[in-house]
Design brief:
The chain is mainly α. The protein is 46% helix and 10% strand. The chain is built from 8 helices and 3 strands; from the N terminus they run αααααβββααα. Bound molecules: manganese (III) ion.
Length: 201
């Protein structure tokens, strides 16, 4: 069984005006689909790997045959990151953090505002293509990290609670070169329920 494209949890225009419908459509139906197709193609001849989840593959890249390791890292990372990113956003999202996460954010960063500043600065300074994440480590601590290309935080033992795709394809149609505006807009659609759910695991 090959990997499949998870359903988008809302319509293409559901995150307007922050995330525009045209970008959402292309991002999901072309880019996410493209990573999926490349991942499935890379695993041709290694069908036994379809028994594992994409998380399992990314958490243990070194166990993969060398011929496909790079492809799984890139295409598999892209497939996985978009699958979780759609869930990290929701219509009428945003606002302040909720649940147990509030206390942890205050403890680690001082306040939500401080956390946001650090996140925005990190996302704004990613050079080239990549992502910025709020992650939880194995001890349950939070930090903000950036990853290049589709390198995955889960390959380094982190669980992503929130993240932002700062590849140009994520914002160029609406925001052109104004990445900081796109990053700011993200906070209006953040799905804190998702972040809390992962944090509590
Ligand atoms: Mn993308």
């Amino acid at each position: 069984m090959a990997y499949t494209l998870p359903e988008l949890p809302y319509s293409y225009d559901a995150l307007e005006p922050h995330m525009d419908a045209r970008t959402m459509e292309i991002h999901y139906s072309k880019h996410h689909q493209g990573y999926l197709d490349k991942l499935n193609a890379a695993l041709a001849g290694y069908e036994e790997l379809f028994d594992k989840s994409i998380e399992e593959l990314l958490k243990d890249l070194s166990s993969l045959p060398e011929q496909i390791r790079g492809k799984v890292k890139n295409a598999g990372g892209g497939y996985y990151h978009h699958s979780i990113w759609w869930q990290m956003m929701k219509p009428n999202g945003g606002g302040d953090p909720t649940g147990d996460l509030v206390e942890k954010i205050n403890e680690v960063f001082g306040s939500f505002e401080k956390m946001k500043e650090e996140f925005n600065a990190a996302a704004g300074s990613v050079f080239g293509s990549g992502w910025t994440w709020l992650v939880k480590d194995k001890e349950g601590n939070l930090s903000i990290i950036s990853t290049a290309n589709q390198d995955s935080p889960i390959s380094d033992g982190y669980m992503p609670l929130l993240g932002i795709d700062v590849w140009e394809h994520a914002y160029y149609l609406k925001y052109q070169n104004r990445r900081p505006e796109f990053i700011e807009a993200f906070w209006n659609v953040v799905n804190w329920d998702y972040a809390n759910e992962i944090y509590s695991k």
